């Protein structure tokens, strides 16, 4: 609602006014980025001190003003100082984030290898010394930066000077960072009704406000999601225009249990997979140092989501190849007959990329929620996840390499840390070396086979220990190794000073020797020992329930047969459904000649699938020709 006029604003009008503000902020932020996109200015901002040696503030907009990096709105447009703050905050955050990439690129350029495609061990040692945090930096990060520089050399036939020649300035996102403002631009408070809040902010009434009179206060009621606790402190959100609506990324603060680096007794081990995205299970550390597993573990399978993800990936690749072909044919001529088609393809590519991003985000949240729920159910205080940042997909074929390289492992771990922090569960990454190769019970190298019923056929899915101490699914053995390795290496857990992430970076042989799962003795059945005299059995046992008439009741005639499993008064199905359905099928009529024995009760709803038949139905024998049949 517009507080000046009292007019109720529709969703489209509110999105339009927020969009005008976003355009002003993103335009000023882009101009500031273009002016400061160089190594000298980024170095000054990242140094943390100004020209007089004073420490720069943590807020990006305050640091930029301390350095004298001002930005002005377009000519003829009047904005208040808080709008300029949001533009400076957005630009300052992007410039501060680029410092790490600049130092990494400088280290790779300083130790450029003779063969960029394959470094020697000496060259690897040199580059890890030159880059920041290189001793624990994944090799995939260094290799990707090397490939980026090699592509620049191939195109320009020379080495780049620094990162700012390799990369162009980042694009300013179309958002409003209200956290950089104070009460003169935006406020938020809880409403009287539970689960609701009221956001008040100043928005322009025209795309080019000429004076302060063109800015009015607008009240926006917000429905809080159920995940926000009732006692949480709300902070100013980040507004994003999206498809004619306005989305608010609301931040809130509430107390949570503190996570611990060590002292864990029950841990959840999580292993990554390709078709099975996650395999997880719990293990317990006993006082004598022994480790036992708690249950058989579980798997998070998202085959349908992954299949859709791969279909979108293939569609994006085809559209990108077609757009590149149009671009080569047009040669930058906007009057070419194919220029319009190239514009349409570019828009479709952006839409497909947005769908892929949304799908990956939803998959990451679902997988992280499942893992944290498994830890809560098992009573675990820590989740150990194998660190696969250094894994590079190569040598497994074009399709499999692409599937492995486009997994969302990083997003899942980030979401897992966020959800685990709410319940006091620590998330620690452990080295992945030999977690799927060694037996979880004796650390003997495993023999991998295709399936348990094919012990002589080489494969990768089924693992067999040569000492016959364990055999099972490869991923099931991996989570046991990860959980036991994490429990034995708790004293080696370190915390990153910048991100606060917990990790076990090295494996100690003496500790690894104790990272084995001790098999638990199977529980015996109930005690059947004789404790008294044997009960006498009647010479004539009571007839079966079906043959015994029921006793006379207050509202039922005497001698009525009990219902048992089958209801005597079961209503008949409708005539249209009765023709093609029975108690074990949900199907449609079939007119084809193909009618396998397993579908004798009906066509089945999918690939001749049937529900388990009730006890009063005669169960058909197995199909000896196909080796399949109904299970009772």
Radius of gyration: 33 Å
**Main β-sheet, spatial strand arrangement:** 11-10-9-12-13-19-18
Strand proportion: 15-25%
So how many helices? 14
Residue-averaged pLDDT? 82
Give the overall form.
globular
Major beta sheet, specifics? 7 strands, mixed
Number of strands: 19
Low-confidence stretches: 573-590, 596-611, 614-632
The helix/strand class is alpha+beta
How helix-rich are the residues, as a percent range? 25-40%
> Which oligomeric form is depicted?
single chain
Gap between N and C termini, in Å? 63 Å
Summarize the structure in short.
The protein has 632 residues and is of the alpha+beta class. 34% of the residues lie in helices and 16% in strands.
How would you portray this structure in words?
By secondary structure, the chain is α+β, with helices and mostly antiparallel strands. Helix content is 34%, strand content 16%. The chain has 14 helices and 19 strands. It has helices at residues 11-36, 39-47, 60-67, 81-110, 121-130, 139-156, 163-166, 303-330, 339-378, 398-405, 409-422, 474-488, 509-512, 575-578; strands at residues 176-177, 186-190, 196-204, 215-223, 233-234, 238-242, 245-249, 252-253, 266-272, 276-285, 291-301, 382-387, 426-431, 447-451, 454-458, 462-464, 471-473, 493-495, 502-504. The strands form 5 sheets. Strands 11-10-9-12-13-19-18 form a 7-stranded mixed beta sheet, with helices on both faces. Mean pLDDT is 82; it is low at 573-590, 596-611 and 614-632.
């Amino acid at each position: 609602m517009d507080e000046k006029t009292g007019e109720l604003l529709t969703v489209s009008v509110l999105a339009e006014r927020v969009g005008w503000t976003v355009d002003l902020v993103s335009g000023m932020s882009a101009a500031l980025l273009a002016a400061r996109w160089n190594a000298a200015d980024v170095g000054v901002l990242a140094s943390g001190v100004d020209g007089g040696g004073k420490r720069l503030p943590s807020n990006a907009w305050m640091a930029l003003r301390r350095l004298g990096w001002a930005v002005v709105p377009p000519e003829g447009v009047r904005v208040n100082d808080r709008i300029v703050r949001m533009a400076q905050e957005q630009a300052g955050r992007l410039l501060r984030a680029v410092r790490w990439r600049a130092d990494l690129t400088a280290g790779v350029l300083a130790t450029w290898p003779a063969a960029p495609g394959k470094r020697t061990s000496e060259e690897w040692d040199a580059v890890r010394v030159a880059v920041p945090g290189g001793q624990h930096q994944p090799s995939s990060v260094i290799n990707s930066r090397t490939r980026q520089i090699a592509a620049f050399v191939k195109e320009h036939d020379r080495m780049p000077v620094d990162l700012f020649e390799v990369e162009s300035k980042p694009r300013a996102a179309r958002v409003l960072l209200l956290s950089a403002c104070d009460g003169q631009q935006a406020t938020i408070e809880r409403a009287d009704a539970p689960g609701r809040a009221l956001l008040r902010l100043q928005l322009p009434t025209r795309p080019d406000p000429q004076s302060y009179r063109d800015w009015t206060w607008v009240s926006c009621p917000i429905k809080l999601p159920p995940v926000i606790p009732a006692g949480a402190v709300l902070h100013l959100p980040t507004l994003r225009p999206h498809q004619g609506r306005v989305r608010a990324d609301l931040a809130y603060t509430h107390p949570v249990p503190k996570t611990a680096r060590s002292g864990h007794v029950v841990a959840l081990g999580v292993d990554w997979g390709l078709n099975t995205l996650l395999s997880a299970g719990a293990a317990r550390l006993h006082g004598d140092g022994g480790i036992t597993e708690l249950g058989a573990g579980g798997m998070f399978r998202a085959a349908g989501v992954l299949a859709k993800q791969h279909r979108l990936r293939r569609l994006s690749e085809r559209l990108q190849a077609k757009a590149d072909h149009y671009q080569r044919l047009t040669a930058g001529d906007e009057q070419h007959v194919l220029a319009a088609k190239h514009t349409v393809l570019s828009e479709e590519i952006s839409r497909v990329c947005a769908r892929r991003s949304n799908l990956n985000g939803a998959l990451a949240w679902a997988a992280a929620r499942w893992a944290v729920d498994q830890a809560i159910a098992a009573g675990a205080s820590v989740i150990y996840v194998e660190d696969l940042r250094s894994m590079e997909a190569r040598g497994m074929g074009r399709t499999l390499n692409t599937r492995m390289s486009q997994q969302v492992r990083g997003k899942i771990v980030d979401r897992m840390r966020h959800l685990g922090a709410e319940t006091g569960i620590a998330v620690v990454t452990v080295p992945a070396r030999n977690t799927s190769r060694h037996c979880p019970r004796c650390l003997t190298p495993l023999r991998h086979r295709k399936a348990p019923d094919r012990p002589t056929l080489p494969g990768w899915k089924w693992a067999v220990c040569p000492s016959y101490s364990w055999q099972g699914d490869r991923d099931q053995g991996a989570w046991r190794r990860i959980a036991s390795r994490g429990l034995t290496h708790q004293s080696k857990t370190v915390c990153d000073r910048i991100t606060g992430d917990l990790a076990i970076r090295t494996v100690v042989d003496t500790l690894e020797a104790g990272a084995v799962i001790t098999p638990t003795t199977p529980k015996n059945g109930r005690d059947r020992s004789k404790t008294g005299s044997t009960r006498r059995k009647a010479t004539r046992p009571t007839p079966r329930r079906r043959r015994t008439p029921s006793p006379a009741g207050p509202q039922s005639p005497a001698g009525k047969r009990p219902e048992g499993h089958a209801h005597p008064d079961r209503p008949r199905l409708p005539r249209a459904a009765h023709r093609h359905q029975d108690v074990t099928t949900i199907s449609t009529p079939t007119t084809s000649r193909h009618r396998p024995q397993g579908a004798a009760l009906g066509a089945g709803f999918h690939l001749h699938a049937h529900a388990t038949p009730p006890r009063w139905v005669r169960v058909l024998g197995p199909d000896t020709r196909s080796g399949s049949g109904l299970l009772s």
